[in-house]
Fold this sequence. Notes:
The protein is mainly β. The chain has one domain: Immunoglobulin-like, CATH 2.60.40.790. It is built from 1 helix and 10 strands. The strands form 3 sheets. The protein has a 4-stranded mixed beta sheet with strand order 1-6-5-4, with no helix packed on it. Strands 2-3-8-7 form a 4-stranded antiparallel beta sheet, with no helix packed on it. The chain has a two-stranded antiparallel ribbon with strand order 9-10. The longest helix is centred in the first third of the chain and has 11 residues, at about 10-20.
Amino acid sequence: MTISSFDPFASLDRVLSRMSRGGAMGEATTLSLPMDVYRKGDEFVVELDIPGVDPSTIDISVERNMLTVTGEVHAKHADADELIVCERPHARFRRQVYLGENLDTEQIHAGYDNGVLTIRIPVTERQRARKIEVSSKQQGAIDVGGSKR
């Protein structure tokens, strides 16, 4: 029994996809990783989609204010007798994120779950939001929101 599919545009799609990623047929390409970055409380969270990667092969480094994530998605079918369809990307990946001065790069934590790499970067203690009260001899203390105390 042979599994096959017929798509007259498949070859064209593969060529155009590789060209859009900057590689020609047969050249090694670099994957572009979808990313979300958001603030939650006193930390910034970076989430990268990296399905099918062994977490021990992911390299995360910080130099000055640059966070760099690198690794490679390996094909698991390298020893297959016959390759019928290969549409999933298998290549090196690299993603860089500029970090602000207000982040504590000594306390970065990373986890990998269900194909998502999550990096948590806390805001430095001195940069965390704090409430400052404004006082007046005539009106009493007024908080920053403007209500009297």
